[in-house]
Specification:
6% of the residues lie in helices and 57% in strands. With 445 residues, it is mainly beta. It has three domains: 1-108, Immunoglobulin-like, CATH 2.60.40.10; 120-225, Ferric Hydroxamate Uptake Protein, Chain A, domain 1 (Beta Complex), CATH 2.170.130; 227-445. A hairpin with a 4-residue loop joins β26 (386-410) and β27.
């Protein structure tokens, strides 16, 4: 019985997610003519975007860790006709799909008038990084920064919000070129609280420049928040609401006011996301001769109530046309409540109830942050080079209380055993940093 009790406790802490065993591979024959082509993975149900990728140097592309379901492949390039694949089905019986090699047709257009325009796309491939522009994909409306990252090429986000880049764990995430200093679980909660409407762009770097001071070799993701420098007063409001089994809302307010040499800006966002997992597991135990010995039937219901509030205010002073000094104050508060209930029945060989196990595991956590940043920037003569200085003070505080109650009953609902465990984990972290970046040109010797 003790072994059974321990088993039920472990199931509360680790509930498996939907199996992600699928893989789609393919290739393009005329890939050498298609530099910068984007491969998109679309849902079979409504053709909404799930993931993007690039064609490799050998013309291949692939999408991994896919759930069972139907998908389409879309390939786009400015000089070629857009390609759509037939419907692709991933099943447990056929988890890996290898597509035929495709040859895309050049786009044929009648030349009537020549207009030279520059247009960004959702994904841009540059020499040292991939740039994501969230505003250019309409399905990002009401999404969070973590959901935008899920669509980015080379980035994988698991059900717990852990981020990997090209299969490597330990990715460093920066906000406006500043490290977040958060553990994986807290970082996921923070990224879920940043609406895509407040993001200017996301830079993904597998080999980041030295200024990011990234340890390891997993790479860097830098999220650049919007800061409008247009003169006068301007702003935007984004509101979204969704209803499934539970509600979801994601709202943001961005305002900017520039007068003479001073620019004031503020970003405020509030969101709430309620999700759940309802999992039923049946385990059957057999004797050495193959006859059934017992059955363990379990249902786990996990509801997640996640809320967040973010505020960022600041000002920039333009000393000259090339030099700027600024201050920014920011903070967030992310409360979460996760009540978990677990009901399990132990049955004998005749499927008669032997014991009933009832467990509950409510978890209540509040994560707070406040920071102040002083910065100076001076544009150099060479385009793209900039001398910059940043002074930061960051304070994190959190409280985390958890209760684990496990009760075992007979088939007649008589209490046999009960255990109650409670924990409280407060935390406080202070970070002070200073950074000076001076671009030094190297001369050939």
């Amino acid at each position: 019985m003790l072994k059974l009790l321990i088993t039920s406790l472990l199931f509360i802490a680790a509930i498996p997610a939907q199996s992600q065993i699928g893989k789609i591979t393919g290739s393009v024959n005329n890939h050498k003519e298609m530099s910068g082509a984007i491969v998109s993975l679309l849902k079979g149900k409504d053709t909404s975007l799930l993931k993007t990728s690039f064609i490799e140097d050998d013309g291949s592309f692939n999408f991994e860790k896919l759930a069972e379901g139907n998908y389409f492949i879309k390939i786009t390039h400015t000089s070629f006709e857009t390609f759509f694949s037939d419907l692709i089905s991933i099943t447990n019986q056929q988890p890996t799909i290898s597509l035929s090699s495709y040859t895309l047709k050049p786009a044929v257009k009648e030349l009537q008038e020549v207009n030279v325009t520059g247009k960004k796309s959702f994904v841009e491939r540059k020499i040292d990084r991939v740039v994501i522009n969230p505003d250019l994909l309409i399905s990002n409306a009401g999404a969070t920064s973590l959901e935008v990252l899920e669509k980015a090429p080379g980035v994988m986000v698991d059900i717990d919000g852990n981020i990997s880049l090209k299969g490597k764990q330990g990715v460093f995430v920066f906000i406006d070129d500043k490290p977040t200093y958060l553990a994986a679980a807290d970082l996921a909660a923070y990224l879920r609280s940043i609406p895509s409407s407040t993001i200017e762009s996301i830079e993904i770097m597998t080999n980041p420049p030295a200024k990011y001071d990234a340890e390891g070799n997993a790479g860097v993701i830098n999220i650049k928040l919007k800061r409008n420098r247009a003169k006068g007063f301007n702003g935007s409001i984004t509101l979204s609401y969704g209803q499934g089994t539970y509600m979801r809302t994601n709202n943001s307010f961005n305002f900017n006011y520039r007068v003479n040499k001073v620019n004031f800006f503020t970003n405020f966002s509030w969101n709430q996301n309620n999700t759940y997992q309802d999992l039923t597991i049946n385990r059957y135990y057999f004797n050495p001769n193959g006859t059934k010995n017992s059955t363990f039937s379990q249902n786990s219901y996990i509801k997640k109530e996640l809320k967040s509030t973010n505020l960022r205010i600041g000002a920039d002073y333009y000393i000259t046309s090339k030099s700027t000094v600024g201050i920014a104050l920011s903070g967030f508060i992310n409360p979460s409540f996760v009540p978990t209930t677990n009901k399990a029945n132990l049955l004998d060989a005749n499927d008669d109830v032997v014991n009933l196990i009832r467990a509950s595991n409510p978890s209540d956590k509040v994560w707070k942050n406040g920071s102040i940043n002083l910065n100076y920037a001076l544009k150099m003569k060479k385009p793209g080079e900039e001398l910059s200085m940043n002074l930061d003070y960051i304070q994190y505080k959190s409280t985390h209380t958890q209760l684990l109650k496990n009760s075992t009953y007979t088939a007649d609902n008589i209490l046999v055993n009960e255990t109650v465990l409670s924990s409280s984990l407060p935390a406080s972290i202070g970070v002070r940093t200073g950074k000076l970046i001076i671009p030094l040109p190297f001369q050939k010797g």
